[in-house]
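Exercise 7. Predict the joint structure of the components listed below.
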Amino acid sequence: MRRAARTLACLAVSAVTILSFGCRREDYSRPLAFIIVPSQDNPFFKAEADAAASRAQALGYRVRVEAHDDDAYRQDNLIDSAIAQNAAILLLDNAGADSSISAVRRATKAGVPVFLIDRAIEADGIARAQIIADNAQGAAGVAKIFVQSMNGEGEYAELLGRESDTNAQIRTRGFHSILDQEPKLKMVAAQSANWSQSEAFQKTETILQSHPHLKGIIAGNDTMALGAAAAANGAGRKDLMIVGFDGSPDAVAAIQRGELKGTALQPAVLIARLAVDEADRYLRTGSTGKLERQIIPCDLVDASNAGEFRNFEYIPSAANVVATH
Amino acid sequence: MAATQILTQRDRLASSSARVALLLLRGRALIVLVLLVLAFSALTPLFFTANNLAILSKHVALSAILAIGMTFTILTEGIDLSVGSVAGLSGIVAGYVITNGHRGTVAAIFAAIAVALVVGLLNGFLIVRAGVAPFIATLGTLYMARGAALLSSSGRTFPNLASKSKAFAVIGQGSLLHVPIPVCLMLLLYAVAAFIASRTPLGRHIYAVGGNERAARLAGIEVSRVKVITYLASAFCAALVGIIIASQLDAAHPATGESFELNAIAAVVLGGTSLSGGRGSITGSLLGAFVIGVLADGLVMLGISEFWQIAIKGAVIVAAVAIDQFQVRLQARLLPFLLRSNPEAGA
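Solution:
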């Protein structure tokens, strides 16, 4: 009994300590900007959340960032919590084009204007804005870089994202809108690596075994492309042409080292800032001043311009020069 | 009494065919493995090549190493769900030490293993002292370890580890006499684990605790100590896997190892270890891991879609457990025959 009590006391003390470290004092007089993203362990969503948070803070908002882990139910609870806390604006990178509609409607009805970033929903007139990256255009652009580095011929493999994910489907369609027009390009393998680096590593090793003449790999995101590059490196196949998608800092660095040939930057940082600005304008004037659906083109990254990308943000060299002087 | 000793012709027949059936059932993992290898070799000529078998073994090594610790915990009627997260956390610790600590490979490995052992100790403490069920305790540490990995890396990857510490790449990418280092590690660990399980008092105690905990306690076995050791062993294996992956990818990613625990559990179950503890073997888990690995890589080589791969893997696991239950029932029903035809068997 005594021992159990001591254990409980220890646990309670450590829990309080952790919580007091985790919480920051907030100024409750400022309006609340509630930001929900799919996850915070993915650098892409983290950059997106960070960009939105810092812009909102600069505009005088109190900020809360949460992650729904692509779970529509968890997203529902988070949106309830945003309503309960009287959020002034809700920025949402949602958990599913169909499954998010009712939650967005609930928030809107409760007087919390919703601004969707990165992913759209299958309904109009509920959210104040839906600002998304043009995945199809980005994928087609990456495919063009891929065709160029392959010289338009040879065997290639495709690593797909989680096959139930909308973006995985849009990207593979975008890839094939270009690749399938090349008669000398032959896809010899298509495997899902579930967006994961270690899975892409193993699948690439295995694909290289069954297709020793493989010349290139086109991957649905940068994480998988980097896994494929590690496998190619280990197999002594540094000549393999590999492209990805997302424009992550790791991928940009790999492009500069020549391990990847290209990627498409989803302008996550730009979109997040745009959404906060529009939300702020909406609160002040009652209108965002823009159409609800806004599609922002992806920026293509290859060896020629890789130096101009910083943490999911494209800073063209002219601006770089201005910034440094 | 004397009457039961007399064997009729029918009894003899039944007992010998029963023994054949039991032998087949016990060796099922090996039989399935051989069949799978034969099938894939027939379907694609590139499967049964030295190069591909080396790569396949390297892929198997990850879940096989996790399966060692998992076998020990399951033998004590426990389970360790935290291994995937611990692998991820260890990789991050190694990446952190190399990138931010500017320390070499050896320090990174020691730090990774130390952190993993802390989680293992916490598992043991929660189960033995706080009395939390293993499933719940390790589910909790699964999330805690994943959270710690994300917190310590702020969600980022530690890239280009080899450029900061040359030797680090050797663990996952190097090879010894054409055998990849991860495979060497796997074989070494299995040799040690099999020795411990079958030839040492600790091994016998592990089986005893899982077979009947009360009886083990009454027999003077320190049940708590045995259990804590199994969770430490499991965490140690997880740390090695985390280090190997970080070395292979040349990068430490905080999400590494997600759902690895399921592959390890599947390997253990396929290898014939009972989830209710006390029955099973280390070498069985190695065979189980190979069955899963051969299946996964073979299907990729044939170009079969991910959806089929998942479904087939599930079917194999379910079939394995069903056969396991069949074996238990058959054994129970045939016990009288076996005892009669071979009196020593009952001794």
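Discussion. Chain B has one domain: 28-40+47-329.
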